[in-house]
Specification:
With about 70 residues, the protein is α+β, with helices and mostly antiparallel strands. It has one domain. Strands 1-3-2 form a 3-stranded antiparallel β-sheet. A hairpin with a 2-residue loop joins β2 and β3. The termini are close together. The mean pLDDT is about 85.
């Protein structure tokens, strides 16, 4: 599982960084990892599961916008 930044989550899934921050503060998933006080990362497997889970569908209205040119490394 790769860990990606909120900016990369925004590029791939369309959920902006402000909304991701609101979800973290409200205790809404997707699962995130706090690397330090100011650094947060998301697991790609966790994101795929969460954005494709019908149970969380009502929390976001973002289509999956995978870019074949995006390099996550």
């Amino acid at each position: 599982m790769a860990l990606i930044s909120p900016k990369n989550v925004e590029k791939i899934y369309g959920a902006n960084t402000a909304e991701l921050s609101q979800w973290r503060q409200a205790g809404i998933r997707p699962q995130f990892y706090r690397i330090s006080a100011r650094v947060v990362r998301y697991g790609t497997d966790d994101l795929d599961k969460w954005f494709h889970d019908p149970a969380s569908e009502h929390l976001h209205d973002f289509p999956i916008r995978a870019s074949p040119n995006l390099c996550l490394v």
